[in-house]
UniProtKB/TrEMBL annotation:
InterPro entries on file: Rhodanese-like_dom, Rhodanese-like_dom_sf, Rhodanese_C, TrhO, TRHO_N
Domain Rhodanese positions: 209-312
SUPFAM superfamilies with a match to the protein in the record: Rhodanese/Cell cycle control phosphatase (SSF52821)
Domain of life (superkingdom): Eukaryota
Range of residues in the leader sequence: none
CDD domains membership: RHOD_YceA
Pfam family, one: Rhodanese
SMART domains: RHOD
Protein name (database record): Rhodanese-like domain-containing protein 8, chloroplastic
Length: 420
């Protein structure tokens, strides 16, 4: 059986050097067969309550005209907080099932459940979903499926035990298995009503934000850069896990939207890409005394599929080789130019060049050409040319420089550029 130690694409914002070690964390090293393009595919979300319904819907999906080739690739995402007595034994079972199946991605198990994002041929990918749901602990899991039109969206499979399903400081002790400690989930239709009420209140009061309701983005800065809900707030830091949101009174900083919030009366509406980070951070806030916590069930991807892009500005960042997806990926009725800024954007800080601050014309990140920096950033065409694909003037003189990539290409391993 092949090794499952891989390069992790889940940390694109890190400035970690890339070495020859197989265990080092790097950012977005694509499968050699992947050539990034515009992804005009549709994601289907199955909120299922019983195994028979799951089985029928999966069979329906497998037979649909949307993906009629068993070898066509799809991307699957799901998570579930549930007690697993021996997660390392559970990992062994999952690895055994993966024998002979062409699945790449990140699948983590802990005592608190499972978190999976992976790609593969439809036949193998859906077989794993079906096998997982045969376990009563995962029978009702919400699964999101979308097409991967250029093969694998992840470089390799990384299936292992992790103490925490989400990377954030000080969360291993959180009572995530208790649903009362997590935010109350709102269906996309309910979220849309709340969202419209918040923004209507802001307009009528002539204030930027409504003090009785905080719309909180719990994603990272680079995710926010390409798209977010109108009226949302987030701290002025690159990485959300570095913020003080509810973790310690002494750590509170000026950029924290929850400073001085009335914990008993203020509604906190939280959202992220798929929902898992909201469950984690709402448990943090609950322990700090926040009472009125709500989260978007299934995350932004579920909302876009169900409600379209109402209230959403820009694209959606995803943690795979596709990077940035159009709202029309989830709802084909939404018409928007591929990876471009919508006219009349309601946020003048939206989608700015990391280097010069001008507005970019394309909502797609690039990695710094300096291999030992590898920062993921948005950049205008002028700065790409002037700094030869680097994020700063300092990086242009680095020893290990890669060539400037054009279009939607992604950097490969260093040996491909060593002779440049």
């Amino acid at each position: 059986m092949s090794s499952f130690t891989v390069l992790n694409v889940a940390k694109p914002f890190l400035r970690e050097p890339i070495t020859s070690s197989p265990n080092i964390v790097t950012a977005f090293v694509p499968h050699p067969k992947i050539v990034a393009t515009s992804f005009n595919t549709r994601k289907r979300v199955f909120p299922l309550s019983c195994w028979k319904c799951n089985e029928n819907l999966l069979s329906s999906y497998a037979c649909s005209n949307e993906i009629d080739d068993e070898e066509e690739f799809i991307v699957v995402n799901f998570y579930r907080f549930v007690f697993i007595k021996d997660p390392e034994e559970e990992v062994s079972k999952h690895l055994s099932f993966m024998e002979g199946r062409d699945i790449h991605g990140r699948i983590y198990l802990s005592k608190q459940g499972i978190n999976a994002q992976y790609s593969g041929p439809k036949k193998d990918s859906l077989a794993y979903v079906k096998w997982v749901r045969e376990d009563c602990r995962f029978s009702g899991v919400l699964v999101q499926i979308s097409s991967a039109s250029n093969g694998h969206a992840f470089p390799r499979l990384k299936l292992r035990y992790k103490p925490s399903l989400v990377q954030a400081r000080g969360i291993s002790h959180l009572p995530l298995l208790d649903p009362l400690m997590r935010a109350a989930p709102l269906a996309p239709s309910e979220w849309r009503k709340k969202l419209e009420a918040v923004n209507n209140t802001n307009k009528s009061s002539h204030e930027k934000f409504n003090p009785s309701c905080i719309l909180l983005d719990v994603r990272n800065g680079y995710e926010w850069d390409v798209g977010h809900f109108q009226g949302a707030q987030r701290p002025d830091v690159d990485c959300f896990r570095a913020t003080s949101f509810g973790q310690s009174e002494s750590e509170m900083i000026a950029s924290d939207p929850l400073v001085a919030v009335d914990k008993d009366r203020t509604d906190i509406l939280m959202y992220c890409t798929g929902g898992i980070r909201c469950d984690v951070y709402s448990a943090i806030l609950r322990k700090q005394g926040f009472r009125r916590l709500y989260t978007l069930k299934g995350g932004v991807s579920h909302y876009l599929e169900s409600e379209g892009s109402v209230g959403w500005v820009g694209n959606l960042f995803v943690f795979d080789a596709r990077l940035s997806l159009l709202p029309s990926t989830y709802d084909p009725a939404v018409e928007i130019e591929a990876s471009t800024i919508p006219e009349g954007s309601l946020d003048d800080s939206f989608a700015k060049c990391y280097i010069c601050g001008s507005q970019v014309s394309e909502l797609r990140h690039r990695n710094c050409a300096n291999l030992d920096c590898n920062l993921l950033f948005l950049c205008c065409a002028g700065c790409v040319k002037h700094l030869r694909g680097c994020c700063s003037i300092q990086c242009t003189s680095a020893r290990r420089l890669r060539p400037v990539l054009t279009g939607h290409q992604r950097y490969q391993k260093w040996h491909n550029y060593r002779d440049f």
